[in-house]
Amino acid sequence: MTINISASLLSDYLSCHRKPMFRIQHPELAIQNKEMIIGSAVHYVIEKYWNNDKLATDNLLSYLELNNITNREDINYAIHCTLTFFNNFKQYLNNDDFVEIRFRLPIGGTDAQLVGKIDRISNGNIFDWKTTRNPPKRLLNDLQFIVYNWAYKQKYNKNPVNSYYGSLSNGDLIMHNITGDSESYVFDELIPEVIHSIKQGSYSHTGVFAKS
Known about the structure:
The chain starts with a strand and ends in a 12-residue tail after the last helix. It has two domains: about 5-15 and about 95-210, no CATH class; about 30-90. Strands 1, 2, 3, 4, 5, 6 and 7 form a seven-stranded mixed sheet that branches. The protein is an alpha/beta fold. Helices cover about 45% and strands about 20% of the residues.
């Protein structure tokens, strides 16, 4: 059986070694919370209607209604995030962009593959849109972007120009900075450790004393 490794699975493992067990063995227990539904709604409309703010907001409201998001504050926040995209980020994009790029790439020396989805690639730049209400001030050695950069290099045989975290809450475009040893740690140490844990079925409860 091929093991699928994603940035979110790696993040789960770092917070508690037992978390991947639920992701792998009990996917039916996963429940989308309100913030996840809002994020999915905003991502959907800016992917499909990225050059038409009227269509984007109209379809956003329909999506939210279908998913029982009826609180006015939540609806207003989703609209705010969508309009932030048009006011702050649309200018960087064009019709030739690659949108919602899914990847499934073998990890050398293992029987696992790295899976994920990049929101947008424009002129060699990676963009990832975030509806998080409290975005970071800076982005250094972010696990998700380390995975995205690696996947880009595997798919296109070159480095991305830059990688950006597009905050839909405040309009900041935060460039990801990566140090030379962080990618080697992820692929030479972290991923082999996670693969071994999954194969052995050894899911220790390391997150019991983690700070919330």
